[in-house]
Design goal:
- Helices cover 72% and strands 0% of the residues.
- With 280 residues, the chain is mainly alpha-helical.
- It has a domain of 72 residues.
- Helix 12 runs parallel beside helix 14.
- The termini are far apart.
- The N terminus is likely disordered.
- It comes from Noctiluca scintillans.
- This is Pentatricopeptide repeat-containing protein, chloroplastic.
- InterPro entries: PPR_rpt, TPR-like_helical_dom_sf.
């Protein structure tokens, strides 16, 4: 039922079963609600477990919160966490990460970061998932300095930042036009450097009109077997347009055609701007 995301069938089987369902049964049904975004059903299941005089554990509470998070119902997720605490069920790293994720999905990045800071202050064990969620909140809030600090803290906690963590920190720097810091993070990401991270740096360089650095990074991507996509080339074209480099823009368009890359409206518009600037 969980794998098929068939919460309806699961509820039907539970109602017809002669065996009394337990917390594990309800947790499995909760997970199927997450997959089908039936967050109201998850709340109903939580209430049903209460009526059956069960004692929901932190896993069941976290599953209900996750159902709310999947539907971006951050207020409900926070309410469940508050209720869980009032019943002397202490949140663990999973429930904290779920609550942070719910806030991040609901554009409540400041709440997400606040929970992360509170958890650290209370000396709770924080895993890579929680750090990653906090880093994405930094990207959403354009808090590039805090993002870099979090990456350094991960190393101090013996956690190895993955591609998603680096990309979030790089995106935060890029959003604030901090291309130097974005490039520094990319150079330190090692094997975690992927197309998303490179594109974030290219966007920052493009907006700063560093067309030569964009072309250098595009060439570097190929050497790293990280393949440029339409976003990569579009960012470089933007830099060429701002820097009046019509020759470079024309070469990029030709290269894109050779590998059958569709530049889209934005890409071709940037190329035209570069050519018009050069009166070609």
């Amino acid at each position: 039922c969980v794998l098929g995301r068939r919460w309806e069938l699961g509820v039907l089987l539970m109602s017809r079963s002669r065996v009394s369902p337990d917390v594990v049964t309800f947790t499995s049904l909760m997970k199927s609600c997450v997959g089908s975004k039936q967050w109201t059903r998850a709340l109903a299941l939580l209430e049903e477990s209460d009526l059956r005089r069960m004692t929901p554990d932190v896993i069941l509470w976290s599953s209900a919160m996750n159902a709310c998070a999947s539907a971006a119902k951050w207020a409900w997720a926070l309410l469940l966490m508050s209720t869980m605490k009032s019943r002397s069920v202490h949140p663990n790293v999973v429930s904290i990460s779920v609550a942070m994720s719910a806030c991040a999905r609901g554009a409540q990045w400041h709440r997400s970061l606040h929970m992360f800071v509170r958890a650290r202050e209370q000396s709770q064990c924080i895993d890579e998932t929680a750090f990653g969620t906090a880093l994405h909140a930094c990207a959403a809030g354009s808090l590039w300095q805090h993002g870099i600090e979090l990456l350094l803290e991960m190393s101090q906690c013996n956690l190895s930042p993955g591609a998603a963590s680096y990309n979030a920190a790089i995106s935060a720097c890029s959003a604030c036009s901090q291309w130097v810091h974005a490039l520094w993070l990319l150079s330190h990401s090692g094997m975690n450097a992927d197309t998303i991270g490179h594109n974030a740096v290219l966007s920052a360089l493009g907006r700063a009109s560093h067309w030569s650095s964009c072309l250098w990074l595009l060439e570097l991507m190929s050497g790293r077997t990280v393949f440029p996509d339409v976003v990569s080339i579009g960012a470089a074209l933007t830099a060429c347009a701002i820097g009046f480099r019509w020759e470079s823009a024309s070469a990029l368009v030709n290269s894109a055609h050779q590998v059958s890359t569709d530049l889209g409206v934005v890409g071709y518009t940037s190329a035209m701007r570069a050519c018009e600037a050069g009166r070609q």
